[in-house]
Each structure stands twice: as structure tokens, then as C-alpha cells.
Amino acid sequence: GAVVSQHPSRVICKSGTSVKIECRSLDFQATTMFWYRQFPKQSLMLMATSNEGSKATYEQGVEKDKFLINHASLTLSTLTVTSAHPEDSSFYICSAENRASGANVLTFGAGSRLTVL
Amino acid sequence: AQTVTQSQPEMSVQEAETVTLSCTYDTSESNYYLFWYKQPPSRQMILVIRQEAYKQQNATENRFSVNFQKAAKSFSLKISDSQLGDTAMYFCAFMKRSQGAQKLVFGQGTRLTINP
To answer: Which own/partner contact pairs does A50-57 have at CB distance under 8 Å and 24+ positions apart?
Structure first.
């Protein structure tokens, strides 16, 4: 079946540093990937839509300069949290559409837990 | 804009019982998909079941079935013969139908616990 790999699964960083999270589609190509943020015991909130070869589309209220998204190839999208602060601590999840699973069906990565000290 | 509402924050049933999770949504779209995703303690999102809005027949996947009421904009999930492994957060989600990938809009989630 389709697999979306997310790395790292856990990361701890110091306040003020930047952290990069990778999202890879392992056996399919994804022109579009999505990045979500999930706070404890809450739902998934869409942050941005990552488009291969073009700029990401950010949801209202999400700072694009804070959360940099790069979708340089059909199998890789990266989310960089710049100048991280403790309030950026969260669970970040990516997803991608795999047409083989059916149109408009998204496969999710296992998520990345970011802790900013 | 689309909204998805899950009115049951938590539910708990005994193993082997049947449980129904509620979901309502609001949209002006005529073509769309509805989903139920499961998020166990591992936090991995797993697709449980998918319904295409233009199909009147309710989707079923083994022990999981939905009651899709398009006019009422209701999409409930029934889990039959519940198992301990069904313990998880369950999210109802909406997606506009399109040629290209579309974003999912999630409900608030229902925490389901299956007790032995």
C-alpha cells in the first residue's frame, strides 16, 4: 500500500533555532501535499497546501515566514519551523494524495512531535 | 466554507457491543466525499471508511458502516462487534470532490474507548 514517510518522528530543539521536517511519498508521486498541526487532544488543523514546483498556499492565520514549506520534487515536501519558540511545540502531520488508493484519498505520515525548550 | 461537527467528545462501550459515532457537516457543495479516520495512540491517521456523496448506498468495510443522510447532512459511523483495538480518536472529515488533491476539513474528534 501507499506509504508516506515523515522524519524525524520526534525532535527537541532550543528556542530560536530552526527545525526541518521531511515528508516523503515512498511509492507514488504527489504533486500536492498537506501539512497539519495537532495540539494535544484536539483535531488536525490545516496549515498549508504544498504544491510541487510552486509556492505553498497557507491557511488564514498561519505565518508563511515562520513555517517555510518547500516542495522541490514529486516525492518530497519539507516544513521548516524558523526561529522556533515554545508555543511552536506541537504534533505536525503531513499527507498526500495517492491516486492508486482512489481519487481524493489522502495517506498520512506518522507525524512529527516538536518540542521547543 | 465547510464545517464538520462531532458532538460526542468521548464514548465508551464494552467489547463486542455496537457503537455509533455522530457527525454532521455543512456545505454548499454538491459533489464531495466524507471520511472517517481513526487515530490510535500511535497518532498515525488511518482511513476507516469513505463515502462519495453522489452514491446513495451507504459504504461498508467489514465491521464498519456509515449512515449517510445527504439531505440532513449527517454521516454517522457504526462499529459492530467492537474490539479492544478499536480504541482510538475518530475524526469525521469532508473533502470537496475535484480532479486534483483537495484539503480535508476535520471535525473535533470523538475519543472512543472499548472496555474489556
So the answer is: A50/A77, A52/A77
